[in-house]
Write a structure and sequence with these properties.
Layout lengths: L2 E13 L3 E14 L3 E5 L6 H8 L7 E6 L2 E2 L4 H10 E4 L3 H4 L6 H11 L8 H11 L4 H4 L9 H13 L5 E5 L7 H18 L2 E6 L2 H7 L2 E6 L2 E7 H6 L4 H9 L3 H5 L13
Parallel strand pairs: 3-8, 3-9, 6-7, 7-8
Antiparallel strand pairs: 1-2, 1-4, 4-5, 9-10
Helix pairs in contact: 4-5, 4-7, 7-8
Length: 271
């Protein structure tokens, strides 16, 4: 079991002509294995900055980020081990997969770099990972990303993130670039994988409807500040902050949005 702790983290960017921009202001939370937290807010609220700091694509200006009580290493093998435990699924599957490489290459690479399995088991592990995300290895393994649908590409990106056997997964708006008709299938897949592997998932979204259905807890971020947090149902049904109420009122009715499809099964045939 792993625990990621964000402790009083702030982030300032220098903007030429404007001075410092405060993107995050004293943000604290804890994410544990087996837990899903939804981080909700409009564009520019600081959600992706949190994801980048967790994955060390950015560094915080102040505060601490700890994994199992230990600060994130800044370089070397320690940082590599940390990144093996904390993986990210990016928003855009069209941009996050290299168009020049096959699906086999995309999933083999983390397996080989992180030495997850012996060399003679790599092929079998690639196929197993594709099957875990409900794709047919025989059909897709030697294709390139442009030959797949958007939903299939995002499933490949999820398989790649799982290849290193992480304990925590950062999902940054993982369905916002996909057709509405296939979003639910990808979210259901993430929920199933989370339960099967006891992953800790930080689900970053602007959509309160999906946040309620796919998370245990919701944090609402506004202008870099967490303005509300709590169990998903309470935050949605009885919001205390006016910004949360505005987000809820602007969202589709979650029961209407998911009611008919909530029990549906999905396949790898996303289009």
């Amino acid at each position: 079991m792993s625990t990621l702790e964000f402790r009083n983290v702030s982030k300032r960017y220098w903007v030429r002509g404007s001075g410092h921009l405060l993107a995050l202001d004293d943000v604290s939370f804890t994410l544990a294995s087996g837990q899903t937290i939804a981080l909700v807010g409009q564009s520019g609220s600081g959600k992706s900055t949190i994801a980048k700091i967790i994955t060390q694509l950015e560094r915080q200006t102040s505060g601490d980020v700890l994994l199992d009580g230990t600060p994130i290493p800044r370089a070397g093998r320690g940082l590599r081990r940390y990144r093996q435990q904390v993986r990210m699924v990016f928003q855009d599957p069209f941009a996050s997969l290299n168009p020049y490489h096959t699906i086999r290459h995309h999933i083999e690479r983390p397996l080989r770099l992180d030495r997850v399995v012996p060399k003679f088991e790599v092929e079998d592990e690639v196929r197993r990972l594709l099957e875990r995300v409900r794709l047919d290895p025989d059909e897709l393994i030697d294709r390139r990303p442009h030959e797949l649908s958007g939903g299939q590409r995002q499933r490949v990106a999820i398989a790649r993130a799982l290849a290193s056997r992480p304990s925590l997964l950062i999902a940054d708006e993982p369905v916002s670039m996909l057709d509405v008709s296939i979003r639910l299938g990808v979210l259901n897949l993430l929920a199933d994988l989370q339960r099967e592997s006891r992953l800790g998932v930080l689900y970053i979204t602007h959509d309160l409807a999906t946040a309620r259905h796919f998370s245990d807890e919701i944090m609402v971020l506004h202008r870099g500040v967490v303005v509300e947090r709590g169990p998903a149902d309470r935050v949605i049904l009885d919001p205390q902050h006016e910004y949360t109420r505005a987000l809820r009122d602007a969202s589709p009715d979650p029961d209407k949005h998911f009611g008919a499809a909530a029990g549906a099964t999905t396949t790898g045939a996303d289009s």
